[in-house]
Amino acid sequence: MKVTIVGAGAVGASCAEYIAIKNFAQEVVLIDIKEGFAEGKAMDLMQTSSLNGFDTKITGVTNDYTKTANSDVAVITSGIPRKPGMTREELIGINAGIVKTVTNSILEHSPNAKIIIVSNPMDTMAYLVHKSTNLPKNKIIGMGGALDSARFKYRLAEALDCPTSDISGMVIGGHSDVGMVPLASQATRSSINVTKLLSEERLQKVVEDTKVGGATLTKLLGTSAWYAPGAAVSELVKAIALDSKKIFPCSALLEGEYGLNDISIGVPCILGKNGIEKIVEIELSDTEKAKLEESAKGVKKTNGLLE
Ligand SMILES: NC(=O)c1ccc[n+]([C@@H]2O[C@H](COP(=O)([O-])OP(=O)(O)OC[C@H]3O[C@@H](n4cnc5c(N)ncnc54)[C@H](O)[C@@H]3O)[C@@H](O)[C@H]2O)c1
Fold it and tell me: Strand pairing partners for 257?
């Protein structure tokens, strides 16, 4: 398993670190346009290998895509992150051009790579990659729901004062402050539905805190978060590397699933060696269905800005 990570910034380096620590990939290549930056991050990370006990080889390069050749997976984190008070949608002007260019460079050297899109506004960037490459839809995976679900589980565990490992839950819909649809009615603590354990008011607060999870951190940090995003990407890469067939909500191109068409948005997906092996259609309540439709309208509006 060779993984290329485009963008050696906060999220890219965090992805590389978690992938290496989980010790399932042979090679990780970090690539950035900033001269020497990826090389420096790679060297620093490699100097943790004897301390953290991993054998993954991490290298860094400045804009030389020949070094990324024959990657199995490419993760695109290049672009600008949001500053406090900004929405993810406001990043589209700069990030669309970057995502399109780097995807072409990746595919020139790794035509068989599965592409994981992280750069924001992520659902629209994933849609852009679909439209500009015509790759089979299973090969383009938008990362947002895996992170949002981790934040949902964190907030549920906080409300229930229990370990996050007790919690199961998922966030679908667009990866935006207003577009996320945390599936509160289906979340559980050790098989007990959380609606039986929390008041409606407390559960609503969990949902709202989840939706603004990224914005809350951006306000505290002055830039967008990187540990949980990096960890979430590493889990998707691991599921592909190990062909594990685990379910994660990912931004996938829909062709009728959930009654939606011509949009990339977060829905439950089975991940394996081919990328998205299957989109899973789960039963949603009428309220959840309405929220997903509303979320899709928001994503389509942002997609419209690509023109
Ligand atoms: N999908 C998610 O869940 C999620 C979560 C967190 C962040 N993000 C997004 O990820 C992106 C990266 O965030 P970050 O905090 O790592 O930002 P960052 O500024 O720390 O890193 C971005 C890196 O991309 C590099 N870059 C810019 N143009 C490039 C190009 N053409 N080729 C190669 N490298 C290039 C920059 O030099 C920089 O090092 C942002 O768009 C952010 O909004 C998404």
Answer: none
H-type alpha helices, the chain: 10-22, 37-46, 49-52, 92-109, 122-133, 145-160, 200-211, 213-221, 227-241, 286-304
Encode pLDDT of 211-267 as tens digits: 999 999 999 999 999 999 999 999 999 999 999 999 999 999 999 999 999 999 999
Is the separation of the CB atoms in 99 and 58 below 8 Å? no
Mutation test residue for ligand 1: of 80, 106, 250, the one with most atoms within 8 Å of CB: 80
pTM listed for this prediction = 0.97
**pLDDT 10s digits, 188-200:** 999 999 999 999 9
Does 175 qualify as catalytic in the annotation? yes
Q: How far is the CA of 304 from the centre of ligand 1 (A)?
A: 22
With tokens 């050790």, the residue in question is 190
Single-letter residue type at 75: V
